[in-house]
Specification:
single chain, alpha+beta, six-stranded antiparallel β-sheet, 15 helices, 8 strands, globular, binds 2'-deoxy-8-oxoguanosine
């Protein structure tokens, strides 16, 4: 557990003595798209139908626009606060090559996000850049999500499958998703129908999430627009599958930079990483992705 207790106050909750928790590391390490840094260095984000603002103050974390009940129900899990990241970093730092990435991104935590939102977000991520991915997700939320006001500004929740199901391919394309629009429509349709009369467990994200890592990785690829890399991101960021090892261009460069993994297929690099880091692969991957991207490493 990486905090000692919480206190509710009129504007939210104070999470006391948080460890291994740095806002830019968490929100800028590639795992999420709906958090934005403010001028005062706080971050405001939308998740689980809510808008919250977070601030680091001395040893504490302040979460605004919430309460103790919501913290216990949502945010303690969302921020993975019950996990001791000190232990994970200790194990990963035994590898001298990984140590520098862990030291660089020492405040990273893997968020537990919502599967449907993450499925759609990472379909959009394929061959795309993070600012463009963020914009497309924001546009979709604005068009189909629910408005929520915070400090006089309107934010939009990510839509449910029922709502997004009303969209046509052209609508989704016009929101900045490009060639991925047809994959999104097809995937939303499968998920929507399985929620309704036409139940098929293969399209049920809860069923997929309940499977073991390797089955989950395979199962996700039944949807259009989801290959091995996107499946790895979805299972890691929303299904608690920590042996996932998504290999994009940054992780590929990092692996070549540190391990001289031979310049072969992404599939081979994935296997190499998973063999090396085992059930902590997903964490290792996140430290590597953040290090490589922030330092613009090249091989
Ligand atoms: O956290 C991420 N890990 C990996 N391996 N790839 C990611 C993450 N986040 C993210 O957006 N990507 C992908 O990297 C999407 C896109 O292809 C590219 C942006 O740098």
């Amino acid at each position: 557990m990486d905090f000692t207790g919480i206190k509710e106050f009129e504007k939210g909750v104070i999470v006391e003595n948080v460890k291994n928790f740095e806002l830019p590391h968490i929100f800028d390490c590639g795992q999420c798209f709906r958090w934005n840094r403010q001028e005062n260095s706080n971050y405001i984000g939308v998740a689980f139908g809510k808008v919250i603002e977070v601030e680091r103050r001395n040893d504490d974390l302040i979460i605004y626009n919430t309460n103790e009940e919501e913290f216990n129900k949502i945010w303690v899990h969302y921020f993975d606060l019950n996990r001791d990241y000190g232990k994970i970093k200790e194990v990963l730092s035994e590898d001298p090559l990984l140590k520098s990435s862990v030291e660089f991104g020492y405040g990273i935590r893997l968020l537990k996000q919502e599967p449907f939102e993450i499925v759609i977000s990472f379909i959009i991520s394929a061959n795309n850049r993070i600012p463009m991915i963020k914009r497309a997700i924001e546009n979709i939320s604005r068009a189909y999500g629910t408005p929520v006001e915070y400090k006089g500004k309107i934010y939009y929740t990510f839509p449910e499958a029922e709502k997004l199901h009303e969209a046509e391919t052209e609508d989704i394309e016009a929101l900045g998703t490009g060639f991925r629009a047809k994959y999104i429509i097809d995937t939303v349709d499968k998920i929507y129908r399985s929620l309704k009369e036409d139940y098929k467990k293969e399209y049920d994200l809860n069923w997929i999430k309940a499977q073991d890592d390797d089955i989950c990785h395979e199962a996700l690829q039944i949807f259009s627009g989801i290959g091995p890399k996107v499946a790895d991101c979805i299972m890691l960021f929303s299904m608690n599958k920590y042996s996932a090892f998504p290999v994009d261009v940054w992780v590929k460069r990092a692996m070549q930079h540190f391990y001289l993994a031979p310049d072969v297929s992404l599939k081979k690099i994935r296997e190499f990483g998973r063999n090396k880091f085992g059930k902590l692969s997903g964490f290792a991957q996140q430290y590597l992705f953040y290090y490589a991207r922030e330092n613009n490493i090249n091989v």
